[in-house]
Amino acid sequence: MINIDNYTESDVEMKIILPLLKDKMPEGLQLEDYHIQTKSSLKKILIDKGTSQKLYYPDFAITILGVPLLIVEAKKPNEDLDEAYRQACLYANEINREFPKNINPCQLVIASDGIYIYAGNSDTNIPEFKIERSNWINTNVEFDSFLNKFSFNKLENTARNFRAKIGTGARFKNPINLLGGKKIRNLESSNSFGENISIQYRHLFNPNLEVEKNDIVKNAYVKLNKVESHILPIDNIFNKRLFDNEGTLIYDFENPTEITSKFENPKNLNNQVLLLIGSVGSGKSTFTTYLKEVALQENIRESTHWINLNLNDAPVNKEEIYKWTKKTIINNIKIKFNDIEFDSLSFILELYKEEIISLKKGVLSLFDESEIKYKELLAENILKYQNDIDLTLDKYILRLINEKKKELVIVLDNCDKRNVEEQLLMFEVANWLKDNIKTIVFLPIRDTTYENHKYDKPLDTVVKDLIFKINPPNLEQVLASRIGYISKLSNNNKDGFYLLDNGIKVKYPSKDEEKYLKSILNSLFNNNFFKKLISGFAGRNIRNGIEIFLDFCKSGHINEAEITKIIKSNSEYILPNHLISKVFIRGNKVYYTDSNSRIKNLFYSVPSDEIPDPFVRVSILKYLFDNRYTTDAHKSLTGYIKTDLLLKFLNSLGHDENRTIEELKLFLRLNLIENESLNPDFFNTQDLIKITSIGLANYEIIRNIDYLASVAEDMWYKDNILAEEITSNLSGNGEYAHLSIQSVSLHSRQLLNYLENYYKTNFSFINGKIIDTDFAPIDFNLLNSDINDFNKNIKTDSKPNLSKEKIYEASVLNIQHYGMICEIVDTSFFGLIHVSELPEDFLEKYSLGNTLKIKVKEFKTAHNKYNLVLAK
């Protein structure tokens, strides 16, 4: 056994106690790093009495499932272990004082000088175990008893029992669940005008066909410069990491000399791979199209023949993919030369002329050309040549490309939209093309794919000078350029239409569509908050940003009254902030649910947990946000934090590490966070993680009052009365209409009050008591202040002042069996059109968002609503 007489206290900690805590059973307690809070982070607590009173903190505190269970004190060999054990007991008891009466989670203590281990309960200064180190073996009865009492499994069971006591087994209720089933949860509002536009112009916003891409790069291409790039500071971390030493960044999309200069002599690029690296949706395909159609000089375009292979269509097994690749190249060549009759005998004889000449010099020389046998042998061999796909491919390239003094460029598009195994197969195809066909292989791939596979073939053979990187263009400019092109085309396009309430198709001039798109664009990008929001949710993915914009355009929350204002204002009208928030958060849905929205509910919890935790999601993002400029000590990656450090920190604040891990996995899949391996399907507690722009946008929207009101609808409440009250409001039985600005104020305040009370009851007693931190998941005072400011801007009419003689417009907000709740346009009032005032088929006839002509019948003071009737 090692002589430890000269060990320091630090040696005892690192070489004896930590192995005991972390080693697998039956040699150790089998704890993870994130269970072990170390002295550097522990809070000093006043212990003892009288003249002996002092500030003290131990060497380790063990927290499992967010519960402090065990205090560990280290001493150097032969120091006073009895005193060390006593002080650790005092510390444990002080921690227990912070918890509710008769709940004492921190019941165990360990003290060791490396020679002995003292262990037992914290309520007595007399250790239950005093075991000499020579007996720390699994065959020793006393050590085995110690392991059974202090092992992870035993501690975890204790933690679960504690959490069950705190949780009290209460039944949680969710307003959306109380409201109804899937049909209610998925209820949508309609905007046929916006839907028609998004369909009619989808080929301009999201071109898929090559002819559509050609049209865009020639008429609506964004000519990027470095300053205008759609890159947020949080994303620059990855760019710096990837391209400090590898590849060339293209700054000017209009004149990308970095890459066009390589094509000055295309022959030199044969059997080479050119990499174009960019994020998902950054415009790699569009840039490739621009390169071959516009950016390259005309003489280079004339001397190259480009073929695009969409690997989304490729089979995913080795037996078929090479055959598919060869056939697809041949078919692409045929499409390019559609003036040639490929089945004609003259073309076939020309295609295989070398083989036919050789055949004539050989076996065919035995026969006269007029003989049937001659013709049979010739036909037989031609069929053999045609069935030889490798020969046929070589001949097509030779005859139609090389002999025309052109070089072949094969673009392998979508090679990385696969799982890992299929992705590697696509790379094998790229490598085969490079080695077996006289071609330039142009490979647009994701930055994450390059990072994960740069040491695999063919990426490992790529010349550094042939690696290029693009940043995504500015999203606002992309949208503006597409809308500008729509404006140019408007005189040649057919008018759009949308459906009136009675189902009649009403035609709109295409100029109205243009006005609508411009107004939506201005509404989103003229406000810094919403501009930051859409940019954040798009991240580096411009394609995703365009989808967000199109989804916004077709949201049914933009009702007919708003559309009319847009068109009458000649696109100068800006949507109200309250409406923009509503569309962002709800999309086309009437009710908010976490599963249906791209904006996640950061206060969502799982009701089956011992203590449902509505703060774990927001705590994850806040911790990563607070550390976004931290540099990892080992790998010098700014913004990246080791996963087990986050787990350890949140564990010390009362969060169950198992729930935290599940939420981390979800956030990886949803791209709210990003791991070091850049693989969302991979999770390891030793991996580095950071917050992404999408995570940042989700975190920063917390201060939006519409967000708070929306997530209040899909919350699990311990307060069942509150859940039922919110459900009543959602169903139209509350004082205000469900989507009214007054309901937004009410629900946001109810949510915040509930969260603050729940936090005090279940988490505040541990926060800052184990480790020295003032971390809180949210700033309740700040959010309350935000709601107060929001309320100041709510327009209220203290007296009902609408005329019974006048006809008003009203927008349908809610449809129930008893009638329809409507918002009276340009007023702060709402009203009910009772079922008795509606046609029998009103449930089928009307949709949410419809604008109706109505008259006021009477004002109901008790409900603060008007009774309305349809205007005749």
From TrEMBL:
<dbReference type="GO" id="GO:0009307">
    <property type="term" value="P:DNA restriction-modification system"/>
</dbReference>
<dbReference type="InterPro" id="IPR027417">
    <property type="entry name" value="P-loop_NTPase"/>
</dbReference>
<dbReference type="InterPro" id="IPR007409">
    <property type="entry name" value="Restrct_endonuc_type1_HsdR_N"/>
</dbReference>
<dbReference type="Pfam" id="PF04313">
    <property type="entry name" value="HSDR_N"/>
</dbReference>
<dbReference type="GO" id="GO:0003677">
    <property type="term" value="F:DNA binding"/>
</dbReference>
<dbReference type="InterPro" id="IPR003029">
    <property type="entry name" value="S1_domain"/>
</dbReference>
<protein>
    <submittedName>
        <fullName>Type I restriction and modification enzyme subunit R-like protein</fullName>
    </submittedName>
</protein>
<feature type="domain" description="S1 motif">
    <location>
        <begin position="805"/>
        <end position="872"/>
    </location>
</feature>
<dbReference type="GO" id="GO:0005524">
    <property type="term" value="F:ATP binding"/>
</dbReference>
<dbReference type="InterPro" id="IPR012340">
    <property type="entry name" value="NA-bd_OB-fold"/>
</dbReference>
<dbReference type="GO" id="GO:0009035">
    <property type="term" value="F:type I site-specific deoxyribonuclease activity"/>
</dbReference>
